[in-house]
Amino acid sequence: MRFYALFCCVAFYRSVNCYDFVTKYIEMPLDHFSFTSNATFKLRYLVNDTYFRQPSPVFFYTGNEGDISMFAQNTGFLFDSAPEFKALIVFAEHRYYGTSLPFGNLSYSSPSHLGYLSSQQALADYVYLINDLQKQYAIGDGQKLPVVAFGGSYGGMLSSWLRIKYPYAVIGAIASSAPIFQFKGITPCHTFYKIVTDVFRNLGSEKCEKTIRKSWTTIRNVAKDDNGRANVSSILRLCSIVKSVDDLNVLLDWMSEIYTNLAMVNYPYPADFLMPLPGNPIRVFCNTLDSVEYHDDLGLIKAIGTALEIYTNYTQQTKCNDIETTATADLGEKGWNFQSCTDMIMPICSTDEDMFENTPYNFTEYSEKCFKEYSVRPRNENVPILEYGGDDLETASNIVFSNGLLDPWSGGGVLKNISSKVTAVLMPDGAHHSDLRAKNHLDTEDVVNARNFHKKQIASWLGQYYWRYYGNNEYHLNYALKYKH
Amino acid sequence: MRFYALFCCVAFYRSVNCYDFVTKYIEMPLDHFSFTSNATFKLRYLVNDTYFRQPSPVFFYTGNEGDISMFAQNTGFLFDSAPEFKALIVFAEHRYYGTSLPFGNLSYSSPSHLGYLSSQQALADYVYLINDLQKQYAIGDGQKLPVVAFGGSYGGMLSSWLRIKYPYAVIGAIASSAPIFQFKGITPCHTFYKIVTDVFRNLGSEKCEKTIRKSWTTIRNVAKDDNGRANVSSILRLCSIVKSVDDLNVLLDWMSEIYTNLAMVNYPYPADFLMPLPGNPIRVFCNTLDSVEYHDDLGLIKAIGTALEIYTNYTQQTKCNDIETTATADLGEKGWNFQSCTDMIMPICSTDEDMFENTPYNFTEYSEKCFKEYSVRPRNENVPILEYGGDDLETASNIVFSNGLLDPWSGGGVLKNISSKVTAVLMPDGAHHSDLRAKNHLDTEDVVNARNFHKKQIASWLGQYYWRYYGNNEYHLNYALKYKH
Q: Is the CA virtual torsion B461, B467, B469, B475 positive or negative?
């Protein structure tokens, strides 16, 4: 069955790229590490073999927290570079997202169903899938195809960890915007929102940043009573009226998240990743905000509301704003929140240094919130460091960590070379995994350079691999000569 | 509470070594990789801090399939070398063995209880325990203590995998008699029994090997009817009479296992590891067998029975032979059998090349047997290779694999240097992890050399570690100068 991801092509504002895949499924053990049950489930993956010629590499995207077709449509770099490497392209869906639901509609119903959602289980899924691909696309000489892992954001964390934990499964990893240092004791919790603030000040304006900074008190003041809350709800075109302080907190969280998302996806061209947006959306947002004149509190809220429409209503088709969500439903927010309460515990806080309301990070409160929401608690804050090593990458090899510095997640990224084998690429004008997106004539030079760096690294890994198994033959020479550093 | 392992000192035939420990427990998550339950259990570990001076290393034994105190009493190398390294000695018990039973008496009652027994869960236990030890024995400058992993047999596999999977937790591993190549497609299945046979022929005699080779048919012939089976049972002093072909198969398996065990523990001095035994037990066994004259089938069986008493009744206190077990009850045979059906699937077979009855390896039959016994099946034969990489150790570092070539498990061991960082040590006269045992004046030279090699490697890893964190200070210099290669 051929799967056409048409949705990305239908509207003018969306990316012009639309990639074609075959959708496949693999039967996967539910639990790779215990033997209490022998249940299995169907994991989805997408394959494009247009450019593939054996014994060329497999470009393997380690899917993250969402429908895999969304990531496939937003990771054009793999398609742009596959022809010169004659690569097979595979996008693997992360368990519990998209259609890879182990218990169908019940998958999110309780910890006994949802508990098999973890990064470790997902990594093992990818190892099993790669093993299966090796059989499906066998060269015939018994030699394995070299597999290169790719991933952005949480997917980037997974691609680097796949190389670290299962180095025999992949010859290297391109980990873009992968905040593997966003864990306890490695990155200060206030870094994240500080970056968002700097980006609004530097790419928007000082005035824009100050208006946002002021808005929290203004909104809380106006929303002190029912009348004020109704006013705020109406000005911001909310789908349901804010009725309590709890509702108000949800609204303010929603606004914070929109500012954060704008920094993440501040690409120089129109794109549709979290939401359909114009190019340079922060500049557009701040230009709008700065241009609206106001004389009182309601005026300020109105100005913010107008600017927010850049994010919430760029298509002019949003009837009202649902403050329960800030991004496409393709992104599995609920699953990610569960993971944040189990194995992906990332301390983040706001202080006076940023434009957001102060929000201290308190692990005990965090744990309580998790228990209330999902009936689970983080075992302890160190789980991800115990499992993946935190910032001790001494023995790691063949990983490129790239980061766009406009991206708040870059604060928890690997920003310095660790060794000759684990390197960092910085894109000062880049946003969240800009380098993994399809090439665009508006790309900044740093993003273009990052992509070239990736290709050279991949070629070098391939050269080593072919040398190891075939000696000085055409495959080895091809890569060794073509991509000399 | 102080735990005195007195049992090892009471009888004349036992090792003269008796080590002293404090017994401790750590609360451990039952499942490190899923979040369906937040259950925990008490994992036992033994600590000896007699020689420990900060910031010296931790010698961490990754416990295998049995009561940890048995391994502690049979791993004297750690005690013999701890004084010069001023090391803290820790022996960690493997979950589901000894007293580390997650569900108490119910632990082995069903897959839903027993299913959390896996090598991956055990490795994570060790990482959590090491993390806890880092807090308990903190230096004060925030710097971690360097931890060196040690293990013999399955424990050796675990120590090498601990370094491979969690390289930030241990600076290196001494993996003795660790058959990490005893998996599908890496080592031919007939290697194991071929080695046992060679050892009986070379250290015993050709006659001895031939008698054993002949005995299977002889016993089957005699045991064709009730009368014959009763005769065999009586001659071999069995606790219960062999009544069926099934019983007979159990008897022959028991005999095979004794020959195998004799090869494993063929130490040059009396020892008490699997069973109390004299020095060079295969020579003693074969001398006995060869010296008994016989003229018919019953005579041959009687000769075998007499020789077997070397193994089964060296203490002269065994009233009868229980064919359900071949080793001390401290060894968790049932747990190991479960692991052999889940994550430690090691193909082993007998052919005409060895002295045992032909036993082909058939994965389907194996899987059926597992299901019958434990209500589980191996997911597939490749599980251990997918999880640990098989013989692809390209990115591994700081591991010594040592093997005694008398040991049948050496066939699945790492017998060649993989790189400058992953080295092999061969002991042509050594048995199963001879090098990890306490020094003895009867040690062969290769075993003594292996221990010296380990110490140099450990010193070199420590030198690198201290250099990395402290620069050119006394700790670094101490190890860099003292153990120059």
A: positive
